[in-house]
Prior knowledge:
The complex is a heterodimer of chains A (325) and B (316). Chain A is an all-alpha fold and 325 residues long. Chain A has helices at 2-8, 15-40, 47-72, 80-98, 101-124, 130-149, 159-166, 174-192, 194-204, 206-211, 216-242, 254-263, 275-294, 302-324, and strands at residues 154-155, 168-169, 172-173, 244-245. Chain A has a single domain (10-324), classed as ABC transporter involved in vitamin B12 uptake, BtuC. By secondary structure, chain B is mainly alpha-helical. Chain B is 75% helix and 1% strand. Chain B is built from 14 helices and two strands. Chain B has helices at residues 12-33, 40-49, 51-65, 73-91, 94-118, 123-142, 152-159, 167-185, 187-197, 199-204, 209-235, 246-256, 268-287, 292-315; strands at residues 161-162, 165-166. Chain B has a two-stranded antiparallel ribbon. In chain B, a hairpin with a 2-residue loop joins strand 1 and strand 2 (165-166). Chains A and B meet through helix 6, helix 12 and helix 14 of A and helix 6 and helix 14 of B.
Amino acid sequence: MTDISKEIIAPPRSFLSQDAIQLFYRLLAALLICAVLAVLSDSFLSLGNILNVLRQASLTFFIASGLTLVVLTAGLDLSVGANVALSACIAGTVIHKTGSPALGILTGLACGGIVGLLNGIMVTALRIPSFIATYGMLWVLNGLTYWYMAGETLHGFPAGFRQIGSGYLFGLPIPVYLLLVFLGIGTFFAQRTIWGQEIYAIGANPVAARLSGIPVARRLLLVYAVSGTMAGLASIIFLSRLNSAEADIGESLTLPAIAAVLIGGTSLFGGVGTVFGTFIGALILTLVLNGMNLLSVSANWQPLVTGIIVILAVWLDMKTRRRAQ
Amino acid sequence: MREAAVVAQPNPLQRIPGVAIVLVLLIALFSVIAPGFLSVANLSNVLVQSTILTMLALPMTLIIMTEGLDLSMGAVLTLTSLCVAIVSLATKSMLLGLGAGLLVGAAFGVANGWLVAILGIPPFVATLGTLGMAQGLSLIVSDGQSVVGIPHSVRDIYSATLLGVPVPIVMALVTYAAFHGLLYHTRFGTYIFALGGNREALRYAGLSPNRLLIAVYAIGGAMAGIAGLLMTARMNSGHPTAGLGLEFDAIAAVAVGGTSFERGNGWLLGTLLGVLSVGVLRNGLNLISLPSSVQVASVGVLVIVALFLDGLRSRA
């Protein structure tokens, strides 16, 4: 019974106000974590550390923002981390071979986008459930990347290119500016364009969306392609930040990205959530991991904590929605 | 489709072609292009190497039949393998090691089942979370290092034979027989069909679907514990990344084997043939000296093709 009633109710625009309350709670949580960390660790409030947190959060955010759109359609993209690794390795090779960062950036974005498009095709044309299709893609990409790199590490890129990930502008890291730009674009796209609203509608009720004339398959393709392209963008930032690329860099990126989306209040069941929420989610996750780092907890604990956070976030989301109904 | 009878009888005739053809084609292909593939030594090697996967793929079949998924299996196997190594190293007892592995595996299985059944978290996310947790715990208990120097009693399990048959194969066959009996010849097995096919009917029959679901995931965790013993014996050590990604091979075997992801019916023999298909594919690619990365990618392609065909069949 609950299933049916959930399906019939379309998402009213007034969700924004409820979302605003949820976002407020999340901001509060972020501030609370900041306060605790400021008390526990002397170095937390240093400018260097705060900029570091922002830079780190921006990396998670780039991957998670595209993923947010996928989750809004009640899908999932488990291949984002592997996509970052492959795109970074290919973009790195192109820069090495041609000496042109611009060409490398374009290749990285294109590679990510193509992978995303393939995911979209599997989900729409082949009708494979998204979490399985993208999980298969994860391993295909992993295999390709390891085969392509054959244990090698790409190292040393032009100084200009490295500025993207590690440079500063007016005292702020450049990735933070990129974060603000993409936060703006993402929010505008999701909230203020028809395509964005159609994505919400598809997530809330795909059948109703199709019956009301929304080209569901094309929007889904777009969403997966955007998610892939954002992974491509993250790969560029990653590459220029680390100044090196290896086959295994993506393995620790997927779970945090999913965690950021879920902490940010985007519902796994589709139709509910915001890109701004994902930004807050990325911030909270980065704060927690940064805090563990400052309190000299071994990095070995990070997957455990991230896993717990993922489960807690889904559980809280389900609880609040159940109460709201 | 939801109205399918509670006792959904498996219909092997429809599926024998799919996975059997895949297996025969793979064997034929590698007999031609991979010298030495058809030798007795190599074929028995394929069988022995498929045993760990069998122990994961059989419970994975049950889990997928309940319209679930367990992405944490490989990471849990890694953790249980480490537990076996650490405990058997400390106590010099293989049985205590196995007990520790079983306990940890079953605990993770119960946790998965609890998250899915009681909290209602979608299985792929719940088990993705526990995947991270098991992976993290593996790194923590091992401190990122291999655990070496484990007792002979553990190592010997992998190399010993019983009446001329390698012990891992005996274990896999016993496991298969147990799962076959459980699924097709007990009431519990019938309930598993109902969990995927018609959960409401279980409730009307006065049964608790939640408890059954937890039991199914717990079986998966416990099997990861037994497989952990084999993994430790095979590598003669515990390693914090030993089993990562094995759940994918298990899912591949189940998908190739014709168990449907959406309709609550499964076929254990198909899964066994699926395991052999994955084993033959990896072994054959290995023989023509393609690196394991290519093997991983081709298993990925295998899964996507199998799921695509499954989707076609369900619409036909």
